[in-house]
Amino acid sequence: MATILSVSGSPSATSRTARLLRHLDDRLRAQGHDVIPFEVRTLPAEALLHADFGHPAIVEATALFRRADGIVIGTPVYKAAYSGLLKSLLDLLPQYALAGKTVLPLATGGTNAHVLAIDYALRPVLNSMGPAHITPGWFTLDKDITVGDDGALTVAPGTAEALAQVTDQFSLALGGRPALLAATG
């Protein structure tokens, strides 16, 4: 199956965005994909802030994007847009780093007022990087993502169904099978 790079653009070590991505990574793995989790916050700040294209960590991140067939981009929404941390990384990638790739944009935020951040802030930047296809994305309210004391992630039922649908559409675009078929087929 496909190799998928699952990118969290959250600067937080306890990010609901990253936790949600790791949850969706499991679904994609169940469909037979090889998933590589990537936390942008682990990149050296100096390399990002000084646009150090030759820094070994940036070179390695660029190689991960090159290697992937599909990219899941997850970001928290701050001030009606995707995170500055994610923007810093996207600015350091080659102009057509997404050429030929299928992309799934996801966002999390505290209010429905930011639901259009994917389409009006993130999607245009991703599109400028030349992907073959950007599948429909999904915005998830922070209140719909709960992390228990034991670390278990719970997603509100309606949100879980919507996320499963967009994840399955992304998987199908990459030549995969929806989780239900993968489990029974």
Could you characterize what this model shows?
It is a single chain. This protein has 7 helices and 9 strands. With 185 residues, the protein is of the alpha/beta class. The chain has a single domain, classed as Flavodoxin domain (Rossmann fold, 3-Layer(aba) Sandwich). The strands form 2 sheets. Strands 1, 2, 3, 4, 5, 6 and 7 form a 7-stranded mixed beta sheet that branches. A two-stranded antiparallel ribbon has the order 8-9. Strand 3 (70-78) and strand 4 (81-82) form a beta hairpin.
Assign an overall shape.
Answer: globular
Give the N-terminus to C-terminus distance in angstroms: 15 Å
Specify Rg, calculated over alpha carbons: 16 Å
Total helical segments: 7
Q: Which structural class matches the secondary elements?
A: alpha/beta
Average pLDDT rating: 93
What characterizes the major β-sheet?
A: 7 strands, mixed
Low-pLDDT residue intervals, each spanning 5 or more residues:
181-185
CATH superfamily: Flavodoxin domain
Strand content: 15-25%
Helical content (DSSP H or I, runs of 4+): 40-55%
What is the name of the CATH architecture?
3-Layer(aba) Sandwich
Could you state the order of secondary-structure elements as H and E? EHEHHEEHEHEEEEHH
> What is the domain tally?
1
